[in-house]
Amino acid sequence: MKKDIRSLLFLLLLAYTGVAQNFSMNFDGTDDYIQSTYTGILGSNPRTVEAWVKTTWNGTQRIIVDWGAISPNGSRYTVNMINGGLRIEVGGNGMTTGTLINNGGWHHIAATYDNSLATDKHKLYIDGVFVLGGNLTVAVNTLGTNALQIGRRNDGVNFWQGNIDEVRVWNVARTAAEIAANMNTELTGGEAGLVYYAKFDEVGASCDIVDCSPGQHHGTRLGTGGANNLPQFSADVPAITDVACTTPLVGCTLAAMCSVDGISVSNISACNDQGTSDPSDDTFTANVTVTFTDAPATGTLNLSGDGMASVPVGSLGMGTHTFTGVTMSADGTAISLTATFSADGACTFTNSNAGTAPAACSMAPPPPTCSVSNISVANISACNDNGTPANSADDTFTADVTVQFSNPPATGSLNLSGSGTASVAVGSLGAGTYTFTGVTMSANGGFISLAATFSATPTCTLTNNNAGTAPANCSPNAPSIPAMSEWGLILFALIVFTMIVVFGMQRQGALATSSAMGNFSATNRQRMPFDKALYFKVLSFVYLGFALIFTTSILVLGYEMTNADVPGSLLSGSVLAYLIHFVLITSGRDTTN
């Protein structure tokens, strides 16, 4: 009983649950292959071969799995690749898929044989999908002459070039559903029907290549020439779930498996702004402790991620090492660190939340300030009278206005105002400059005054009161004529004034005459009639004056009459004529009486 217990404990110790690392096997295509001790499935018994493969080879046959004999025909069972297609051969006969597997990516392949079927005894699958089936003309009768080989045909030719992983042989013809269900995960080794299983995850095992199936048909790497010295364990693996083999090993001892078990952070310092106002260079320091098991004998333990550090393996303690004062970025986020042994790239561990970094302590510099630095004018056109040569107020010219600026706002528009107006959306601006073309301005001969302002930042503005000189107006100025309403008031006042003057002159003359005759009295003065003839005689000269003014305005001054000007001009002419005649009357030079 005690002996049985000891045997059980021994088997449990040999079981390598959960400590294996994940690798594939790399073959150089020259002489690399693996020789197992498994004779393979013989005769015409059902079978399934599975593997993950990665290659770029395009040409003659390259072997994935092979066993049996070279002759007679039908005694060899070979899964290989030719011209990039997956192929099954039974020695002397085979079939190849049109779907290729040589694009440099990982592909799952499977070949099944079921002699009980009438059709499609042979089936080929790529990435879990059935792609080709059929019956071969040569019957399957596999011999046990040569045990299973990986990467080479049993007569020593057609070496695989690339990577192979997860080689499985089953003693049943698996269905499409079964193949698809297990292709993306490793197995434990104890699955029903699994008779050979090379995981390639056990570096340094005493048996070299471990068979995880209950058969324990361990193998050996061979081929010392070419680019590799033997097929090499590679960290390039397919993206499948890593599952530990639970089959107890027989006749094989595993090497100690390195593992990094944890990363912790302590003694986090305050933020250091490095003497700058830039938060991107803010840092802090902390101690980083890495715990591990079975470190390699050579190389270094390297820290990467938010902090960088390295230490030779010879300086490590027993299962732990603390990197002191590791500098990291003070950004207020989770601290992410990875510890890796350089001699064993698979012996690594990442803690993406080992603690929290202090927040940045530098005050960020203020955003750049928008400014308008210059307004200039070019390509000033000649004056345009706009078809109204008598009206200089609407004379215009055009010019190109260039505005220089920096750090404009992201939204809004750049607006031009003053002597000319224009606007453009910020999104249409160039880099630091924009030219408004053909801006219309008043041709008045004065200084051109312009202001440029960003609507989203009104303080981002500039005014240039002397950006250039406008052309002089090009319409001749018409005489300045008062408005009709003004002349009406003046004429009314003068008519009343004329009546008073004429009446006064009449009384003065009558008084002088009556006094001489001795019959002048107050009653006579009150009954003295108004001299209408004299009054209208005065007004008659008004129209003479109007004719003179009207003629002078048109012929001499070049005045152009409009409908609106006629009434006012008539009144102005009448008033001027009246004034002339009034002067004559009051000076005693009027001889019309």
Folded structure, characterized:
The chain has 4 domains: 12-234, Jelly Rolls (Sandwich); 259-351; 371-464; 484-586, no CATH class. It is 18% helix and 32% strand. It has helices spanning 2-14, 176-182, 484-517, 522-526, 532-555, 565-586; strands at 24-28, 33-36, 47-54, 62-68, 76-82, 85-89, 94-100, 107-113, 122-126, 129-134, 146-150, 161-170, 194-198, 219-222, 232-234, 259-266, 283-293, 300-305, 309-312, 320-329, 337-341, 344-351, 371-378, 396-406, 413-418, 422-425, 433-442, 450-454, 457-464. A hairpin with a 7-residue loop joins strand 4 (62-68) and strand 5 (76-82). The longest helix is centred in the C-terminal third of the chain and has 34 residues, at 484-517. It is elongated and about 170 Å long.
> How many distinct folded domains?
4
* CATH topology annotation of the largest domain: Jelly Rolls
User: Separation of termini?
Assistant: 171 Å
Stretches where pLDDT is under 50 for at least 5 consecutive residues are 1-20, 481-485
What is the name of the CATH class of the largest domain?
Mainly Beta
Which band does the percent of strand residues land in? Answer: 25-35%
Rg, nearest Å: 56 Å
What is the structural class?
A: alpha+beta
Please count the beta strands (DSSP E, at least 2 residues each): 29
Fraction of residues in H or I helices: 10-25%
Given the structure, what is the number of helices?
Answer: 6
In round numbers, the mean pLDDT is 85
The name of the CATH architecture of the largest domain is Sandwich
Please outline the major beta sheet: 8 strands, antiparallel
The coarse silhouette is elongated
